[in-house]
Amino acid sequence: MSRLEQMRIPGEPDWDAASAAVSDAYFPHQLHPRESRSSAAQADVSVTVMGPLRIARIGWGAEVAIHTDHPGAYGINVPLGGVLETQVGGHSVVSTSGLATINPPDTPADITRWSSTCSIVGVKIDRDFLRHEMDRVGGGPGATIPDQLDLRAPAGESWFRLVRSIAAQPADDPLLANPLVAEQLAASLTDAFLLAALPDDPLDHHLPRPRIVTRVLDALRADPARPWTAADMADVAGVSVRRLQEGFREYVGRTPRDCLTEMRLAAVHDELRAGATSVTDVAMTWGFTHTGRFAAAFRRKYGMPPSALLREL
Predict the structure, then answer these.
(1) pTM listed for this prediction
(2) Which residues form the HTH araC/xylS-type domain (predicted)?
(3) In this structure, what DSSP letter does residue 9 have?
(4) Nearest to 130 by CA among 76, 201, 187
């Protein structure tokens, strides 16, 4: 299931109404305004739901403190400004712009200071779903997720850019409304988060890289239209996602995703030349869900837009 809601707080908002709206959108909690005369008039929340993952944007418009246990899910809180101070697991995590606080599931956490200028993007990922993806992505036996993620590093920055891009989609976006696409996006966001947060796994490095690459290329050629995730490809290879990417960089010079895109573009090209009449239908059939990016990639590869190929026939 996927949906985007702008959860306006009804009537003249008070703290109880604001807290209830945020609990519905993100996590149940106990809210404590830090200033006795503060108002909930500026509080707002919106949420994008994609099956086991949701993205919430929350602002209180005043300084507050919060207690929550994050039941059943990880909560990744990214301040867009201001300060977010959290006590979790017996120690303090202070995040400002460029840093994210990672709250483990079913663990008491106290946000002792959520400053008045702090709005957050919160990413909630179902506990079992994330752990399943962790097994597929790889992180080594006993790997643990840290309590803070640096979004200024390339992997963290890339993940958060993807989060914001999806959260910015309109509520009536037909792709986000498609359960298959929503599930795919949830898995991709979770895998990207894990790649940014988990340390490298040295135990993967004993496997021969050419065999890893060959297995995945054969699987992609056999079914390029499949909605492949990075974790799916790693499953085929029998290694972690990070290890798979290293093998492709060394032996192919491109990522597995780049190779898949090349195969899909060739399939679209062949169908268009064979007499297909709808560029969009063919592109969607072969796994391209973003028409703009597809058209740009097609032009780079073949020197013309896909519509021009149809006009030539």
Answers:
(1) 0.70
(2) 214-312
(3) P
(4) 187
